[in-house]
Each structure stands twice: as structure tokens, then as C-alpha cells.
Amino acid sequence: MNSALNELEHVSLGVMAQVLLHTGALPLQVWRSAGQINRALGTAPRHAWIVRRWLAALTRAGALGEDAGRLAWQGTPPTAAIDNLPGLYAELGFPASMAPLHSQVIECLPDLLRDQLALTPLLLQSGDLVAVLGAYQHNRFTAAINQALAARASEVRAHGDVLRVLELGGGAACTTHAVLATLQAHEKDYRFTDISALFTGAAQRQFRLEPGMHFALLDLDRGFAEQGIEARSQDLVIAGNVLHNARDLPQSLGQIRACLRDGGSLLFSESIADNPAMLTFMHLLLSPPADAPLRDTDEAFIPPDAWRQVLQAQGFQLLEVWPTATDPLAVAGQRLFHAVGVSS
């Protein structure tokens, strides 16, 4: 699997190089700043961070050299063997639909970056949006993270007779499925939430017969109390690959801590570094809407030590980060975090 991950990264770096060269954003033997490259490409302001992350990835790989804030190609730029995507995605355990969908997005990248085309309608052409967005979470690495999260969820003890669980940003319910399978012996009050009615509606259809399930809209960037989540009411909060969407992470973690009882658990999964493949694919969905403020930082994902600090500042103690750096699963850059609320 490691070789497939490395090859997928190489293909993705080649895709980035192909776009920059073919659009004339960064020709051979020309030095340009990130701002000049984005202007030459015609990148929409909300997507400019994506291109800057491309440039950082290409620089780390040695494809670009930097001098006084300007960048130029070093040697022969990487090439994109897009025909290899089906085999690579299959080896990594993704559904068969992922490779052709990624290939389609790659063909449209310049228009997507210029906002001449939107990613969501493009994804809708491939079928049900919930299924499409869930497909990229169906892989060996994310499945292992979800199973580990579910195992730890089953060990959380209720403060009363009923285990009170809040899931944030439930999305396509990949994490939900794993957790519910381990909570069958528990009497539970499980609130599945998401910012989109598309996902809460789909979850309600999937889990309508599951005892103790509730479904509601919830915005990470607004106060939880005003959205019906009482203070110190939850035994367990779950967030599968969603907290990076918070506009103000400390504020959102503060809201989570406020709704969690002392000693209650926060279990969440996150990527801890850029994923070159997703930077040419699903990470376009992380750009803010055209009428919203631009991103404060190009860093969409933060490392474990930074998580430890921000969690501690909001009243949490980080107990575990899994897998460890030496675990073979760690190469995918995904981690499970287990924190508990401590009394102030």
C-alpha cells in the first residue's frame, strides 16, 4: 500500500505541474512569485490557497526551486500518469468510481480553479452526492481509523443510564456506521448532526430504525447552546474528519468542551498534513464560498503537537494519538485523537 500511496502522490504532483505548465502560469525557465502564478492562471481568490499548497508540495518534492520568494522549475517537471489511477485507487481499497471521478476533475482543474466550473455540480453528474462524497472515505486507511474510533467509543461510560452521544459533521455517515455497530449493547441518545440537510436527511433514512437516534442541523461556527445542545449534557462527542472546517478552531473546541461533561470524551479523526491527491480533487471543497471571508491560513491541517496545544487551551487533555508515527498505517497522514474534558 505504501508504494501505491507514493505513486499516487507522484501522479498528483505531475497533475499540478501539468496545469501550471499548460496554462502558462509557470513556464519553464521563468521565475515567478505565488501571487504572479495565481494571476497568470486566473485563479479565483477563494481558491488561491490551493495553488499555493501545490507550490509548497512541488517545492518539498524538489520539482521547484525558490529564490527570494520566487519559484522556478528545477530540472524536468514531474509528469502525470493518469492512466495509473484505477490500479492505484483499487490497491488502496477505494471504490471503483473514484478513479474516473478524479480523472474527470483533473481534466477540469483550470476551470475549477477559475470558478468557471463548480466542483459540487460536477460530482452530482456521477450520481447521488452523499454516495460520491462518501466514496473517498471508503479506503483501508479511513476504515481502520473509523474502527479504532468506534472501539474507543464503546469504552466510554455514561454519566447516567443513557449514553449521550453527539456526532458533529456526520456527512456520509461512514464514521456513524462503525460507531453504531459497537454501541448495540448500550442504551443511547445519539444525535447525528451536520451543517447540511442533505446529509441529515440521508442519515435519517439510513438509521430510522436505530433506537435512540436523533437528527439535526448544527453549524460548528455558531454557539451550540443556541442550536439546542445543552451545557455539560454529552458523554461523548465524535467528529470524523470535520474539525478542520471550523473557521475559528479554538472557539469551536470551546463549544464542544462546554457541551461535554467533565471526564467526557472527544474522539475525532483528522489528516495532519497535505494530501497531494486530494489537493487536485476533494480539497477544492475546503475553499470558502465566494461571498465569505478568505481563509486565514493556507494550512488546512495541523500536526498532533498543535492539536495538543489547542485542545489543552480549551479544557481538554489529549490522551492518545493513533496510529503512532512508526505504525504502517501512519503513512496515509490520518490520525485518531482521543481527548477528555478536564475540570477547570
TrEMBL record:
**Key words, A-Z:** Methyltransferase, Transferase
Q: Give residue ranges for domain Methyltransferase type.
A: 166-266
Recorded protein name is Class I SAM-dependent methyltransferase
Q: Which BP terms in the Gene Ontology apply to this protein?
A: methylation
Q: Superkingdom, according to UniProt?
A: Bacteria
User: What's a single GO MF annotation on this record?
Assistant: methyltransferase activity
